[in-house]
Amino acid sequence: MIEIHFQHKEDAKRLYGFLQQLLEYESFANYTLHYEDSHIVQCRYTEETCYVEGQKAFFQWVKKSLCQFMLTVKLNDWLRHILATHYHYRDEEEQQQIIDIVHSVLEGKLEELTVFLPEMKIKDYLSNLINDWFEEHSRLFSFDSFTTFRLRNFFNELRKYVELSLDEYKMEQEYQMFIQTLREFLMNREPKLKQLHLLFSDVITFFNEQFEEIKRGDLTKMVDRRLLINHPVYIDSITIAPLLSIAPSRIYLYTDDPDQPIVRTIRNIFEERIISRPLASIEEYRKQYGASFDKKV
After folding, report:
1. What is the bridge-based pairing of β-strands 140-142 and 274-277?
2. Which of 15, 116, 201, 259 is such that its CA lies 20 to 30 A from the CA of 208?
3. What pTM did the predictor assign?
């Protein structure tokens, strides 16, 4: 039998429910659980035949399950605690948005952020610490002692991920405020062109409804100077400022990289006005509009 002790009965209750779900899914009839004294979860191996091998497998299952519990249940608790205690973020919705970013960084989904931190193989790290504990305390696992004394370095590393994710969250909030400001500016403008075609190749090229190139000098003359005065840091005077000043009813984007930052920003500002097309579709318009457009492609 293995006993897992908790200081807080809510944690014991959650582990008990978590292990019950695992047992139901994995159908281990010879593993039993007991919820003792509100603070203790007992795990028992009840099979009498092949006892030694079965006992080894049972211990592995308990250790693996504890690691899963920490990753799927307690990790978010720890992240919320760090956010509230060290950074004074207590709003649950804000916490969840930042936690989502932390998970993306930990899973390597945000490569532009992971380069700033050493790789953290969190599952392997916790699993090794749990194994070390059971080598010293074979049948008793004190959850709170484990987290207090064995996870100090882990929490220090986790704080680095929280701090990085918090910076990303703040930048995203500023970006969204910036986008909303530009949307409001756009709402009050009359379109100077019904359609505008934007070709993303080696450079970004503007074309009017007839697929005649709009020269850079002409674009500069169209720019509403209030945009550059009110938003000198954010506004891209080459692409975004001319688009906002022209305020076309429809914008056709021709690109093979729809995830690049400038395309994302244009889509976020102009929303339903945008129609995206691959660069290959430009051949249709080459035939339709002739040599003047053919020279640019």
Report:
1. unpaired
2. 259
3. 0.81
